[in-house]
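Data availability (excerpt). All sequences and predicted token strings are deposited with the supplementary files. A representative entry, Phosphoesterase, is shown inline so that the format can be inspected without opening the archive.
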Amino acid sequence: MRLVLTADTHVPKRARDLPGPLWAAIEAADVVVHAGDWVDEALLDAMTARSRRLVGVYGNNDGPALRARLPEVARVDLDGLRVAVVHETGPRTGREKRCAALYPDVDLLVFGHSHIPWDTEAPGGLRLLNPGSPTDRRSQPHATYLSATISAGRLTEVTLHRVTRD
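Structure token line:
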């Protein structure tokens, strides 16, 4: 199962649209995960139309219309891998321990908010992934998103992709 993970897209405030390479990855993926800060319902509609399956949550920059359509936390089973998606996880200090306590029943936690790519493992084996942002790199050298593969209930081939503007 092929995944694309993204967050903090901030369309149309930070970009008019997602970069072409990310759209191509979305269309090729089996599952697309968006960890919040969409900003506009039009992007949610477009991603829904162009994805085979979309799992998303709202972020702190998402207004009432998006909050009415998306949960704060999403939980899904993807080919035996227990996944939770949330926008904010709090400060980076203590993140692994805090998230392991908050999400003891999942294998993978996808989060956003910081615009900083993150890939760590908490005590007990919880994997934490933040794809960064494909449209607003802030202090990072590149805008980014992640792809990954799930095989037999295990997360494999996690790749951080640098995004160039079209």
